[in-house]
Amino acid sequence: MSKSVVILSTGEELLTGETVDTNSAWLAASLWGLGAQVRSMLTAGDDMLGLVRAIRTACEHGSVVICTGGLGPTDDDRTAQAVAAWAGLGLSESTEAMTQIESRYRTLGREVSAANRKQAMLPDGAIVLENRWGTAPGFSVGHNGSTIFCLPGVPMEMRHMFKAHIAALLSTSESPTLVRMRTFGVAESRLQTMMNGLDLGGADLGFRAHIPEVQIKLRFPTGTSADAQRRVVGRVSDVLGESLYSVDGGDLAENVIEVLSQAGETLSLAESCTAGMTSAWLAEVPGASAVLMEGVIVYSNESKERSLGVGADVIADNGAVSKPVALALAEGIRSKAGTTWGIGITGIAGPGGGSEAKPVGTVHIAVAGPSGTRHQTVVIPGDRNQVRIRAAGTALALLLRCRN
Ligand code: ATP
């Protein structure tokens, strides 16, 4: 039977908006993958009364509560106290937790302070969850048919500890399978229309717009055979055509690095309106150095001429945001850097600078490669940042298409 779970994130900085609650989102996705049902998500501050009330409410909604945050050494870290109050337990120093803290500090070559001892003060009878990734041990307590697991707020520690201590306990044989298909260049509404009437073999269909792309999620019920899943993914792929760039794989930059490095190909970029954004995105991918050779920001007309030899007449005749300039940028950087591929991007990010002929969001992209140069113009809706992110995405998607 799948367990009903409530996620409780704590910390005053979540209530002020200082910290974005990524822990809950990560936990929800992980729990879903394990087949557990997340009933609700709650957020509480640091005050004792509020915390105890939130724990009580959480336990009314689910038999398992996963709580993050408030395990630190400072006075405003009150999770252990609140759990003890909720369960009617005393709070005392756990020898096991203290041993773990001392051992961790020894490894780090640091002294255990009085404040650190506070991190070993746990509700009586709590099960200690070792933290090999930080200093605060986690713990779990059962009371009145509910179990609460308490993990640190630091995302990296929380994730490791969830995987090490909790995931196996909540995993069920009823786990559904999720297939994530990543598309670029087609709006969500249009994707929905493309999916209409398609035989999805009982899979739930979901869309997630994650700028600059839209992901299609197929959630197959337990027991769907691998063959049946493959047939559905095949049908969806046929309908999506060129807009589909990965099934259960990485993002556009990861795909570009993977595909080009496998082929022993290299890339250079000349970016105007994106000003290095595309290069930076590629550089986030481990192994980028095998592919990404050079990137230049050619924001001004003068730099386009000086750095890459774009003719002043080409700019004067066509404007800096034009097909001939994008071609000259792509070809110029490719020949200068001596790479397999060269990308040129020039556009109007806005909010000013648009005209009737070239509205804000107009971007010209060119990809120069071994068999010539391909060009694409797009008019991207959205604010300055969205225009720039989508322009970067369009350039990488065009490069992938050039290689097909
Ligand atoms: P520590 O004392 O080691 O900092 P803690 O268990 O007391 O750990 P908090 O103090 O609540 O955790 O949070 C530590 C940091 O972790 C926060 O400053 C914040 O950057 C991050 N964090 C906390 N909760 C969340 C959350 N729900 N989502 C994302 N980040 C979080």
Question: Gist?
Answer:
This protein is an alpha/beta fold. It contains 15 helices and 17 strands. The strands form four sheets. A six-stranded mixed beta sheet has the order 2-1-3-8-7-6, with helices on both faces. A five-stranded mixed beta sheet has the order 14-13-15-16-17. A four-stranded antiparallel beta sheet has the order 10-11-9-12.
Explained architecture:
The protein is built from 15 helices and 17 strands. It is of the alpha/beta class and about 400 residues long. The strands form 4 sheets. It has a 6-stranded mixed β-sheet, sandwiched between helices. Strands 14-13-15-16-17 form a 5-stranded mixed β-sheet. It has a 4-stranded antiparallel β-sheet with strand order 10-11-9-12. β10 and β11 form a beta hairpin. α3 packs across α4. The two termini are about 45 Å apart. The mean pLDDT is about 95. Bound molecules: adenosine-5'-triphosphate. Adenosine-5'-triphosphate binds near residues 13, 14, 24, 77 and 154.
Question: How would you summarize the topology of this molecule?
Answer:
Layout: E1 4-10, H1 12-15, H2 22-34, E2 37-44, H3 48-61, E3 64-68, H4 79-87, E4 91-93, H5 95-108, H6 114-117, E5 121-123, E6 127-129, E7 138-143, E8 146-151, H7 155-170, E9 177-183, H8 188-195, E10 204-210, E11 213-220, H9 226-240, E12 244-247, H10 252-263, E13 267-271, H11 277-283, E14 292-297, H12 301-308, H13 312-318, H14 323-337, E15 341-347, E16 362-369, E17 372-379, H15 384-402
Parallel strand pairs: 1-2, 1-3, 3-8, 13-14, 13-15
Antiparallel strand pairs: 4-5, 6-7, 7-8, 9-11, 9-12, 10-11, 15-16, 16-17
The chain binds adenosine-5'-triphosphate.
